[in-house]
Amino acid sequence: MAEITAKLVKELREKTGAGMMDCKKALVESDGDMTKAMEWLRKKGITSAEKKSGRVAAEGIIGSYIHTGGRVGVLVEINCETDFVARRDEFQALVKNVAMQVAACPNVEYVKVDDIPQEIVQKEKDIEMGRDDLGKKPENIKEKIVQGRIEKRLKELSLMDQPYIRDQSITVEELVKQCVAQLGENIQVRRFTRYVLGEGIEKEESNFAEEVAAQMGS
Asked: How many beta carbons lie within 10 A of that of residue 143, not counting itself?
C-alpha cells in the first residue's frame, strides 16, 4: 500500500475541488495513483467541478492573445456564472492562458471532442481503414486498431484534451476544473478563433534564379 501523504491529498484536492476526506479515501482506494483517484472521484460524482458543470454559465469574458511579432492572434470566450467571478484575477488569468494555448496549438480546431462534426469523424475512420498496415488483419482486430487511432486523432483536434503548455502533467480540461474548484462556479470554454497573418491569401511565388537572369539580361 502506497503512503498517502498530506501533500498528495492537497494536490488531489486542488485538482478536483473535492473534500479532504474524500480525496484521502480516493487515494487509498487507488493505492496512491493520482489519475485513478481522480477517476474514482468522478465516478462517485464527488468532484466539485462535476457537480457545478450543469449550472448555467452565461457571464464571463472574451479574451485575446497576440503572439510576439503580431503574426498569430487568438480570441477566446470563456463563461462563468457571475460577473463577480469574471472580474477575478484568477478567472482572467485562465482566459489568457487558454488563449495562449490556442495560439500554441495550430492543429486544434474544436473546444472538445463532442464538438467535432460526424462527417469529420467518418472521414478519419475511412482514412484509417484504408491504411496499408491493416490490410491483412482480421476485421475485428482492424476495428479495434482503427478505433484507437481515431480517438487519438480526435483528441489532437480538441483543445480540452491538450497537455497544458505551462504544466504538461495536466490537460486544459483539468486546468479549467482547477479554476472551478478555486472559484466555486461552473466555468466553460465556449469558443475560440485563431487568426494567422496572411492565411488564405494566395501569395505570388517568384523564381529567384529567373529574376537574376532577367536582371542580367536587361
From this structure: 14
Class of domain 1-50: mainly alpha
How far apart, in Å, are the Cα atoms of 46 and each of 15, 28, 34, 188, 196? 12, 15, 15, 19, 41
Phi, psi of 41 (to 5 degrees): -65, -40
Q: How far is CA 89 from CA 86, 93, 94, 179, 182, in A?
A: 8, 6, 9, 11, 12
Contact 78, 65 (CB under 8 A): no
- pLDDT digit string (tens) for 168-205? 989 999 899 888 888 888 899 999 999 999 888 876 65
Domain ranges of the chain: 1-50, 116-153
pTM for the full model?
0.67
d(CA 111, CA 189): 7
DSSP letters for 146-162: HHHHHHHHHHHHBGGGS
